[in-house]
Amino acid sequence: MQSGALRLSFRFILPVALVWALLAYAVVPSVDNLTLRWFVRDLDARSQMLASALQEPVQEYLGQKSPKRIADLFDRTVQDQRLFAIAFCDVNGKLLYKTRTYPESLDCMESGWQQTLRQGMVSLPQGSVHVTESPLQAGGKYEGKLILVHDTSFIERRSADARKYVIALFAVLALIMSLLTILIAHFSLRGVLDALKDVLVGDAKHPARHGKPDSGSMQPLAGDLRALLYEYSVDKRAGDDSSRQWTPEKLRVLLREELAGDEVLVVSNREPYIHAQTATGLQVNRPASGLVTAVEPVMRACSGTWIAHGSGSGDRAAVDRNDRVKVPPARPSYTLRRVWLTKEEEQGFYYGFANEGLWPLCHIAHVRPVFRSTDWEKYVEVNQRFADAVVQEARTDDPVVLVQDYHFALLPRMVREALPKATIITFWHIPWPNPESFGICPWREEIIEGLLGSTILGFHTSYHCKNFLETVDRYLEARIEHDTSTISYGGKLTQVESYPISIAWPDADQAQPDIVTCRQQVRQELALPENHLLGLGVDRLDYTKGIIERFQAVERMLEQYPNLVGKFSLLQIAAPSRSSLDEYQNFEARVRNLAQRINKRFGSGVYAPILLRVEHHNAEQVNRLYRAADVCVVTSLHDGMNLVAKEFIAARDDERGVLVLSQFTGAARELHEALIVNPYHIEQSADALYRALTMPEIEQRERMRSMRSLVKDFNVYRWAGRMLLDAARLRQRERIMTKIRSHSRSSLRRVV
Ligand code: F6P
């Protein structure tokens, strides 16, 4: 308040003081000088006129030697208001005639008076007078001089009047200047603040700039500032990433210290634990889901609540009256809150919109997406149901909400509306297609708007981020900052970033089954000879996984290398998935038929080159298979990440085994030591499979060691930690922007 008053008075007093100084030292003296010169010139002219008029009568009366008449003449003449006195001096400089008013001291203006005259002005004890001398000549002969003395007090009066007008004029000027200064300061301050706010925060009222620079003068400066901040945050993040060995404990500390709280809410469709009603009672299963594999260890580390669809036959029996159950069953560390869906809701939301619409839309696997209005309605309804559950479960008004996957594209905005201060981190586990492909979705704008309710929107790769930014650019009026990868929409910022998902690296003290034993047991169980070469595929039975192409590659390899017939088999674990959908039923039939055909062609007796197991395997069973296999084959036609590749690497502490990996997985961008293949190119995959089976041990070790060190460091805690760190920074930035906004509002109020 004090500084505001000071600023205000400064803005007012400074112009006034300046004007006053100008007035005192320049204007008033000049005005005085000017008026004096004007009046002196006027008096000179008057004196000349009077002197001329007096010439004749004075000469006449001199000739008549009539001093009385001269005295009368002079007295009559000084009746003039301004003429003060007259005198006549003869040729010898003797004062002959004068009026009574004539100052004695002037005498005949001899003896140095001339030097003291300034513009005819003489300073006398009774005040200043103006004196002129006019020679009197008769017939060309000098006969003396007339001295006319004018009163100059009227000049003083006029000067004083003029000074008054000038001062008044300048006072008005000073006032106008002061007001102008205040107004200019006010408007330029508001302009600066508006521009700053506009540029840094973005504004829904100024949409459609699409990352192009503003015409505002603040834009280049703010752009530089923002870029600098972004570089700084990237550097800082790199520093944070490298300085942290990401562990569950680090994640807990991060939550506490950077996000000022430990309340984490996860939302996903698939639940981490499914209770099944069996003849022997309730049985708990872990689903085949990359999402669950990744997020579950994070939840164990952070506690909190996981909200998911209760889809198991025994789920209702396992929960309390608030639909909650503590998990993991063996060592409970967080809460699972189940949301119930009717058959119709599950059909429209999960099978329909999510898996017949969005799933094929986002995966380029040449299966046409199907969009139905009825499915969309259910999708909206169920998203709202889950958003309500988030609000119910939140203990504070600013929880950290981790939204998982394409089932909940609308939920971030719904939660944002109910809990504006929440930190919403959405992770899209599947690829994001290019804008043309995404444009097929009839509700594309709603989907993107829903996602932009997030604080952070994560994808596995920067390629998917780029596709998303381009899609927003194409279909929404939002402001996109490509250099910082942020989108401003409806006055809110969303950071779009790539966070490659990963797995929890096994603890060093976690007992692992012996590799040799695993190899022997698995081969025994499969009725295979001891040294049988074993390839392994682990997938959900999904058309995006490239299972058909994988079988074709096996067939091609056996064609090309017949010496492997009878010595190699591919064990394909295929967890049943979305089996009520036609597309999945057809796919299963095609997979089974192809396996049969190849087995018929190359199999003999008990030998089958393709061992297809369409059934669920738990994590422990899969781990044994990873340790028993010679090669793991991942040939997805399109996959956000594919965690099977990383799980296989984590399982191979013997540094043996080879990974054959599709170039169309997110994992291929990290695991360069795998044998990378194009699954559509069957011969290439066949060659890679053969190369893997015949790779020298030393090469296997080199490749495996390098990939293990990467997956160990780039684990799932780092995935979650980086998102949480970025969220914390964005939260901080939002806080600063809020402060700037409120500060700019209050300073404007003060100025006004
Ligand atoms: O890839 C997306 C994803 O959600 C994975 O996380 C997971 O493997 C799979 O889909 C799960 O599918 P669903 O929950 O339909 O069985």
Structural write-up:
With 752 residues, this protein is α/β, with parallel strands linked by helices. The protein folds into 4 domains: 1-209, Beta-Lactamase; 219-241 and 254-260 and 728-752; 263-498, Glycogen Phosphorylase B (Rossmann fold, 3-Layer(aba) Sandwich), CATH 3.40.50; 515-714, Glycogen Phosphorylase B (Rossmann fold). 51% of the residues lie in helices and 17% in strands. It contains 22 helices and 23 strands. The chain has a 10-stranded mixed sheet with strand order 10-11-9-6-12-13-14-17-16-15. Strands 20-19-18-21-22-23 form a 6-stranded parallel sheet, sandwiched between helices. A 5-stranded antiparallel sheet has the order 2-1-5-4-3, covered by helices on one side. Strand 4 and strand 5 (141-151) form a beta hairpin. Helix 1 (2-63) runs antiparallel to helix 4 (153-201). The longest helix is centred in the N-terminal third of the chain and has 62 residues, at 2-63. The chain is rod-shaped. 6-O-phosphono-beta-D-fructofuranose binds at residues 269-270, 289-291, 405, 429-430, 540, 577-578, 640.
Question: Topology, pairings included?
Answer:
Elements: H1 2-63, H2 67-77, E1 83-90, E2 95-98, H3 113-116, E3 121-124, E4 127-138, E5 141-151, H4 153-201, H5 219-243, H6 248-258, E6 264-267, E7 274-278, E8 281-285, H7 290-302, E9 305-309, H8 315-318, E10 324-327, E11 334-339, H9 343-362, H10 373-393, E12 400-404, H11 411-418, E13 423-427, H12 435-438, H13 444-451, E14 456-459, H14 462-475, E15 479-481, E16 486-489, E17 492-498, H15 515-525, E18 533-540, H16 547-560, E19 568-575, H17 582-602, E20 610-613, H18 619-628, E21 631-634, H19 643-651, E22 658-662, E23 675-677, H20 682-693, H21 697-713, H22 716-751
Parallel strand pairs: 6-9, 6-12, 9-11, 12-13, 13-14, 14-17, 18-19, 18-21, 19-20, 21-22, 22-23
Antiparallel strand pairs: 1-2, 1-5, 3-4, 4-5, 7-8, 10-11, 15-16, 16-17
Helix pairs in contact: 1-2, 1-4, 4-5, 4-22, 6-7, 6-22, 9-10, 10-11, 15-18, 16-17, 16-20
Bound molecules: 6-O-phosphono-beta-D-fructofuranose.
6-O-phosphono-beta-D-fructofuranose (F6P) is lined by residues 269-270, 289-291, 405, 429-430, 540, 577-578, 640.
